[in-house]
Amino acid sequence: MKHPRIGIPRGLLFYSYADLWMSFFRDLGCEVIASPETNAEILKEGLRHTVSDLCLPVKTFLGHVAVLKEDVDLLFIPRHVSMEQESYMCPKMIGLPDVTRACFAHLPQVLDPLFHVKQFGDKAADEFTRPIAKALSLSPVRTAESFRKLMSESFGGTAERYRQACSVLSEDTAVPPASKKICIGIIGRPYLLFDRYLSKNLFSFVRKLGANPVSLRPAETEIREAMTIIPKWVYWDMGKEVVASAHVFFKDDRIDGVINVCSAACGPDSFTGDLIRKRLNQRNKPYMTLSIDEHASDAGIQTRVEAFIDMIAKVTA
Ligand code: SF4
Question: Which of 15, 26, 145, 301 lies at a CB distance of 3.0 to 4.6 Å from 200, suitable for a disulfide?
Answer without folding.
Answer: 301
